[in-house]
Write a structure and sequence with these properties.
This protein is an alpha/beta fold and 264 residues long. The chain is 36% helix and 21% strand. It is globular and about 60 Å long. The N and C termini lie close together (8 Å). The structure holds magnesium ion.
Length: 264
């Protein structure tokens, strides 16, 4: 039996699984076409907070992978949803380090974004990957957290795969602020259960029939284990077979790449 036949629902990571930066992985489009042909349900789930769902829809479209926005969950949208559902945010202020997509999502739920001295008294510090991150931003976040702001991170990925190699991810920024403020962030993205619950709710909570496909052990595969679903690791991202054998996190399946699903 083909692996694709064993499951009805697929949670699919993007970076390192479907593409590496702007280069699609071999047969990524064909895999999605096959899911559609077989009437499978799927969503894309990314820890990347660099774009919103619409941004990823466009990116996927440029690779001829056609999906609706509601098939894409990002750590930005999940973070905004989490804040909205768990805190009284009316009239509250947030200091946000991250891409425009993250700031837009935070603004959309009604938080006021603040900067500079005003941010020292922010109610929330929200951190994602930001290529413009610098010491001054670390300092502001540190003051706000020391003044009892709630510290939230979109994700804790240490690095991020690009054609030139692994570059620092949100986790590198978050941990610098944790070190400075001596407070641990609450992390929304994989492997946190919160983002997984949003994903699995799209399949009416059906775990038995659900497989997560990812390229990272400590995020994708661990997320699957924590959520109680099956896990498949692809080796097109940041992890090698040797690293898997050394890790305590063991995926249910290890595949060379997304194309392996199409083989007999
Ligand atoms: Mg990935």
């Amino acid at each position: 039996m083909k692996l694709i036949e064993k499951f009805q629902n697929f949670i699919i990571d993007l970076d390192g699984v479907i593409y590496i930066q702007d280069e699609p992985i071999h047969k990524a489009k064909e895999f999605i076409d096959e899911l559609k042909k077989r009437d499978k349900d799927f969503i894309f789930l990314t820890n990347n907070s660099g774009r919103n769902s619409e941004g990823y829809r466009k990116k996927l479209k440029s690779m001829n992978i056609i999906v609706d926005n509601d098939k894409i969950i990002t750590s930005s949208t999940a973070t905004a949803k989490y804040l909205y559902e768990n805190y009284n945010i009316k009239g509250k202020k947030a200091y946000v380090i991250g891409a425009r997509a993250l700031k837009d999502e935070i603004r959309k739920i009604g938080l006021n974004l603040v900067n500079g001295k005003e941010a020292h008294k922010a109610d929330f510090v929200i951190v994602g990957k930001d290529p413009d991150f610098n010491y001054e931003m670390m300092k502001i976040a540190n003051f706000a957290i020391r003044n009892s702001a709630i510290f939230i991170a979109t994700n804790y990925d240490a690095t991020f795969p690009t054609p030139e190699g692994e570059i620092p991810g949100a986790g590198a920024i978050v941990s610098s602020i944790e070190t400075a403020s001596e407070v641990k962030a609450k992390v929304i993205g994989k492997p946190n259960i919160y983002i997984m619950e949003i994903a699995i709710s799209k399949f009416n909570g059906n775990k038995e029939q659900t497989l997560i496909i990812g390229d990272r052990l400590e995020t994708d595969i661990l997320a699957g284990k924590i959520a109680g679903i099956s896990t498949a690791l692809v080796l097109t991202g940041v992890v090698s077979r040797e690293e898997v054998s050394k890790s305590e996190i063991k995926p249910d399946w290890i595949l060379d790449g997304i194309w392996s699903f199409l083989k007999e």
